[in-house]
Design goal:
Shape: flat
Strand content: under 5%
Order of helices and strands: HHHH
Number of helices: 4
Helix content: 55-70%
């Protein structure tokens, strides 16, 4: 690179994503998304999610009852997924923090 490379599209300076990708490649590192996907596939994470699920964290009574109107039902499903995704993000964050705390010990 050394400042002489141009963007993939050949029309200007490197984009931030291109610089980040080059850095990850050079360091043989993983992006946060790649690392998170690997963590989410681990048996330990699945066990953690199971424990959280058993405590009722993913329950969403507000969006649990199916609607008879197709539009309302579609909206309910979208909201239900959004709530689940938000809660899953919190679980991932909590799990990562717990792992980091164990590494620090």
């Amino acid at each position: 690179l050394n400042g002489v490379a141009s963007s993939v599209n050949g029309r200007g300076p490197l984009l931030l994503g291109e610089v980040a990708a080059a850095g990850l490649c050079q360091l043989q590192a993983k992006s946060r998304r790649q690392a998170q996907e690997e963590v989410m596939q681990s048996p330990l994470f699945e066990q953690f999610v199971g424990a959280v699920r058993n405590k009722g964290f993913f329950e969403d009574p507000e969006h649990a009852t199916p609607k008879s109107d197709p539009r309302e039902e579609e909206e309910r499903l979208v909201l239900q997924k959004a709530v689940h995704d938000e809660r899953m993000a919190k679980v991932v964050c909590k799990f990562r923090n717990k792992l980091a705390a164990k590494v620090d010990l």
